[in-house]
Write a structure and sequence with these properties.
Strand content: 15-25%
Shape: elongated
Structural class: alpha+beta
Radius of gyration: 27 Å
Helix content: 55-70%
Number of strands: 7
Number of helices: 7
Distance between the termini: 75 Å
Length: 271
Amino acid sequence: KNRIFIMFYGIVALYLALALMLYFNFLLQREVKRRIATEKQLIEKIAHKDKMEAIGNLAAGIAHEIRNPLTSIKTFVELLPQKYDNPLFREKISYFVPREIERLNSLLNTLLDYARPRKSLQQTENLLDLVRNTLVLFGTMFEENKIRIAVEIDPDLKVFVDRQQIQQVFINVIMNAVEATEGVSEPKILIAAEQKAKEVIIVFQDNGMGIENDNLRKIFDPFFTTKPTGTGLGLAVSYQILKENMGRIWVESKPGEGTKVFISLPIGKEV
């Protein structure tokens, strides 16, 4: 009888221990899910803060880009009463004004698409279009800093990404390249890409000051920055965005020799 009781209590204790393990496992899974959700919300907030900072940095250049076509249109409108009977003037106004309006519309659509919050949506995108739409926002900045920009991307190259998120990454990387070339006599930025197996490798190369080895290991750490007014969020956010888009980012740099930022993105799916 004692043996039976001992076996019975042993089985009960085993089931209790198992029940406790299952209960603690449930609590642990719930806590893990809560922390993942909290971390995701934090990342989204940081990404939004980074995006707003980028828009702030580009604001002056964007205002200038908007002012240029408006000035052209204003000039034509002011000359309209005096020169309407001139066939050459009518030909010019018919040619230039619609193009300036389209230029203005394209710039505003690019900016609104970038700034408008929305759910992540990966789809096949033309890489050259993504790069060009991003460079539009830097037109004035390149001009003021006398930066020569070169793009070497096959027009048929496609990537499978969230357009808005990847544009944020491109803005961060290009902004860093612009800042790195300050003080360089002939600043240059090259953007090139090539397909390798099932991924597309994009390189952003500048001839700026380069990065010290000690700093190179920290550039993806949140809040790490060597800039007096920087937040240190740009590359950290870019790293996370690329992770969500099944991409990668890495950097090669030497002080005084410039920097290469490599971005790997999944190749676009056939439509």
